[in-house]
């Protein structure tokens, strides 16, 4: 038996081919596959590419595939992605779930837990011991994604322009951001940001620049990173409170490029989680999220997966 686990993210997409025991037999990687920012045709192209690479172009029977992608627990997005998977040959054997769920399963298996993701976007997601879920954030770059690389990068760019105008404090971010993009002056950022197809990912790449400026003591960068930690901690606290998990022992997994690359941000979120859920074990997600997708695909092939319902819509069966 062969299964596919796919993690489709805002920066990269990973597909893993595995056997019935979860042994990884093949891997495919490609660029972003976010429906809101890339569009349906580009998402289909990326998914086709990673599946071809994971299977090495061989025709084989896939018992089940699990795709984790941001936004697919919203009905409109789910319909589009299900159509994409059908066109790729997965008609009745595709499980499509939020990418936060596969990250949680990668780190906690079937146990209760919470995952906090800060990459290009951000989200906090958890499943309680009652088998119900809650989420906070994950609404995309316009409506949310607070504490993400993109959110941090946007605030850095605003600070640079305010510095250039004399409307805000002087900041070393001006020099660092211009050097990051190899630009001579702040005005050149207009074409760099607005006229480039990779604008969102380019902005998100500034997250590590701001983190470095924070380490060097720049007050503006310190303020941006502190607010990022606030937002991520509030998102996690919202999930933990709604699932009534504050006094319980469970893992809190930190995932995504910003929490991986910024030692300060990871440590700060960890510190704040000790106040919210003192018995929780907070640490980095050490597995690829696609591993969680593989585990769910195996379970789907063996009889089906119960995707945890959101607590906001969950109604227990009458006694």
The radius of gyration is 20 Å
Tell me the distance between the termini.
Answer: 40 Å
The coarse silhouette is globular
Q: What is the tally of beta strands?
A: 10
> What's the CATH topology label of the domain at 2-107 and 288-301?
Nucleotidyltransferase, domain 5
CATH class of the domain at 2-107 and 288-301: Alpha Beta
Give keywords.
10 strands, 319 residues, alpha/beta, globular, disordered C terminus, 5-stranded mixed β-sheet, Nucleotidyltransferase, domain 5
Q: How would you describe what is shown here?
A:
- The protein is 47% helix and 18% strand.
- The protein has a domain at 2-107 and 288-301: Nucleotidyltransferase, domain 5.
- Residues 314-319 have low confidence and may be disordered.
- It contains 14 helices and ten strands.
- Helix 4 crosses helix 14, helix 6 (149-165) packs across helix 10 and helix 6 packs antiparallel against helix 11 (219-242).
- A five-stranded mixed sheet has the order 3-2-1-4-5, with helices on both faces. Strands 8-7-6-9-10 form a five-stranded mixed sheet, with helices on both faces.
- It is globular, with a radius of gyration of 20 Å.
In terms of topology, how is this protein built?
Blueprint: E1 2-8, E2 13-19, E3 24-30, H1 35-38, H2 40-54, E4 64-69, H3 75-87, E5 94-97, H4 99-108, E6 113-118, E7 122-127, E8 133-137, H5 140-143, H6 149-165, H7 173-181, H8 189-194, H9 199-204, H10 207-215, H11 219-242, E9 251-255, H12 257-261, H13 263-276, E10 281-284, H14 289-301
Helix pairs in contact: 4-14, 6-10, 6-11, 10-11, 11-13
């Amino acid at each position: 038996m062969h299964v596919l686990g796919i993690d489709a993210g805002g920066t990269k997409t990973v597909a893993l081919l595995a056997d019935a025991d979860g042994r990884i037999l093949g891997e495919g990687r490609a660029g972003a596959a976010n429906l809101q920012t890339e569009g349906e045709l580009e998402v289909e192209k990326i998914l086709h590419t990673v599946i071809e690479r994971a299977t090495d172009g061989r025709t084989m029977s896939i018992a089940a595939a699990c795709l984790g992608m941001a936004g697919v627990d919203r009905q409109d997005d789910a319909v589009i992605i299900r159509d994409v998977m059908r066109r790729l040959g997965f008609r009745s054997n595709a499980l499509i779930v939020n990418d936060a769920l596969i990250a949680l399963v990668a780190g906690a298996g079937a146990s209760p837990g919470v995952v906090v993701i800060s990459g290009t976007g951000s989200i906090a997601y958890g499943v309680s011991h009652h088998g119900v879920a809650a989420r906070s954030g994950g609404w995309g770059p316009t409506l949310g994604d607070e504490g993400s690389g993109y959110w941090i990068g946007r605030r850095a760019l605003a600070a640079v322009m305010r510095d250039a105008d004399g409307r805000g404090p002087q900041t070393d971010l001006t020099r660092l951001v211009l050097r990051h993009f190899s630009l001579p002056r702040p005005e050149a950022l207009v074409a760099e940001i607005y006229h480039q197809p990779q604008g969102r990912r380019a902005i998100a790449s500034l997250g590590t620049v701001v983190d470095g400026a924070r380490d060097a003591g720049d007050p503006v960068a310190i303020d941006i990173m502190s607010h990022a930690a606030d937002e991520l901690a509030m998102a996690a606290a919202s999930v933990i409170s709604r699932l009534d998990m504050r006094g319980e022992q469970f893992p809190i997994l930190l995932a995504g490029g910003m929490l991986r690359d910024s030692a300060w941000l990871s440590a700060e979120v960890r510190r704040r989680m000790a106040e919210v859920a003192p018995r929780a074990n907070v640490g980095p997600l050490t597995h690829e999220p696609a591993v969680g997708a593989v585990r769910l695909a195996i379970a789907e092939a063996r009889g089906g997966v119960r995707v945890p319902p959101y607590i906001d819509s969950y109604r227990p069966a009458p006694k």
